[in-house]
Design a protein that fits this description.
15 strands, four-stranded antiparallel beta sheet, mainly beta
Amino acid sequence: LRAYPEPALPALRPGAGLQSTIVMFAAANGKRQDFVTVDRTVVESIAWLNDGSAIVASEQDLGVALESQVFLHAWPGGKRSRITNDFNNYEAISASRVDATIALVRNTTISNIWLADAAGAPAKQLTSFTSPENSAFVAGAVDSSTVIYAAPSDRYLQVWMMNTSGGGSRTLTSGSIHSFGPN
């Protein structure tokens, strides 16, 4: 078995200055060494690669993603590289001790919009999304003929509008910012 540089774990500082630090402890004396600190990020699970060259981590970086993604932190310098970039949620990372295999859990949420009548008429499905990259995050009825909702477009959530009688949707927002839509 390969000896890793030191045992490591994620530590979180919550609050306005949210930060996560990957902390290592010397096996010989328990001395703490902060390996890498990332702002506005929750590091959820970590594992050393089998060759000790990096720590792989599931992290929710609030500056760039809505879901936890997979990152590598190179040892010893700490250079951070993003491995995944999608609307799935990754967690429970582990790494093989004999080769370069990484195991993790990927959660995929696919959401569609339905229109229901408060008087009890049957609900009507308005969308048929098939992947998290275009699934609705939130939706709201403007009136009986118009729904607005937030869904991904070009890596960011945008606000969309659709007519409840059918037809396509059109975006109301754009750009490199998440727009969450109605509440």
